[in-house]
Design brief:
about 350 residues; Udp-n-acetylmuramoylalanyl-d-glutamate--2,6- Diaminopimelate Ligase, Chain: A, domain 1; UDP N-Acetylglucosamine Acyltransferase, domain 1; 10-stranded parallel sheet; flat
Length: about 350
Amino acid sequence: MKNLTLAEIATITGGELHGDGDAIISAIAPMDKAKEGDITFLSNAKYSKHLASCNASAVMVKSSELELCSSNTIVVDDPYIAFAKVSQVMDTTPAPACEIADSAVIASTATIGTNVSIGANAVIETGAVLGDNSVIGAGCFIGKNAKIGAGTKLWANVSIYHDVVLGEACLVQSSTVIGSDGFGYANEKGEWIKIPQIGSVQVGNRVEIGACTTIDRGALDDTIIEDNVILDNQLQIAHNVHIGYGSAIAGGTIIAGSTSLGKYCIVGGGCVINGHIEITDGVTITGMGMVMRNITEKGMYSSGIPLQSNKDWRKTAVHVHRIDEMNKRLKTVEKQIEKNVES
């Protein structure tokens, strides 16, 4: 990692330094493993009891924990945000590619901006546009007339289909596919007729997309991912889905076609969201949630059955299958009670 002084870290985080500003920090570490030369942080007050015995050269805390610290301290409003900012500066992740590899295949009509890097065996097709400082990893495919914004990075083997637009400062992890055909078919007497997907995908600025995620192109209109969205690994985003500004979706989630997810929504891992529905702004869906209809009010929503022993689950399953029978019996009892009350 890059070495920084505590004074530099205080500037990066906007924090208040208490201690030696010339102390050198060479790594970030968890509180229980930190040693001299490391900086750590306290984002959960229940771990504050460990501050006195922490061996880190410095710790980032809220003002309420300052008096518990025995080493150099930087007081910040949010230690987790401070950790994120310092991590960005000290990040040692290599670039997906450097310069333009000799084995890259670049169409003569492609537009390549300044300071662009293209890895080995990447293919850039006709009419594609790569913005300034963009990085295209090894084995990537950039389709015809696709546009990659300035500063956007693609890791190895990402496929960007024709006419897809990625905004600026995006990050796409390996093996993700953007712009593949949506699942559009008509059935004529048992035979499937493919519906060409003639829309595209529009991805905004500062969007991060995990590994092995698929975002389908629209059938007629475009699939839309607005600015500042974060998408985890192994998601399926179907055709004509619209994901609003600042939303976050965890791994393994499936969103069916033509669904609209509002701004600042959070979707837990393994969720399934039905097609042709609307979810309003500020909704949180906890993991393994199944969304079958519109959500019109912000808030937290959950579904699914928590884990049980197999023996208990079998009993629960039997009860579920008997719900209709139990409901009929309950109605019969209610009617009998009403008769008794009237008489």
